[in-house]
Amino acid sequence: MQPEDELIWHLVKQIVDIVFENETPAARLQQVAILLTINALQDHEEPLTTRRLGDVFGLGTAQTSRLVLRLVERGLVERQRVHNRQGRGHAYVLRVTNTPELVALRHAIAGGNRGQ
């Protein structure tokens, strides 16, 4: 399996292997989509906030927050509190939690891309 595929499978497996009580397969699928999107967008120039993530999927902030909180509960996503765009309130910047396995996979991908 290619390192990029291993990274994706590693992220997906964290959700499909640990099922919360009364959690539906559809809810886990939503979490997979959110987690993979956070992973893809977290290093872009514009900070990835709950609101921005919701905009990607056409979801409201409350619904997006519920999905993100499930990922936080699983230890897969970290939220960092920052000032919002207007500077009056706050927002949370989202990042995938860097586990040792995830760091190793990212290094493998970066090493493989250098030779291309």
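That was protein one. Protein two is written in the same sequence-then-structure order:
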Amino acid sequence: MKTLTIILLGFVLTATGLYAQGEKNTSIDTKSYLEEAEVAPELIGGIAELAKQVKYPKEAAEAGIQGTVLVAVYLGKSGSIDALEVKKSTSDILSQAALDAVKNVRFKPGMVDGKPVKAQVIVPVKFRLK
């Protein structure tokens, strides 16, 4: 029986496009989200919290599908998720699993001059079967 391991990589700030609540091409202005902040947005509970939310899709595991999904997260000043976008993925099945996991975690907002700001962060989620 295959054992699955889900490796969640660290955060990388970058520019992105989006999915808002699962829909592509939303009306948010992605240019209003900082690519870099003095204090980067932070995943509350860390990688361990995200790992709890990730579910390896059965059909992907059965088909031997593995890979990394890069999810762009657009965060409001409160740390709430305004939109999500898959920037890179090896599979649509894994993309949806990564989006579902990221939707279920919370973030601390990015900060500039001690004030919360709208920021974007990339969350890489790696799916690997052993």
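The helical segments are 46-53, 58-62, 92-103. Keep this in mind for the problem set.
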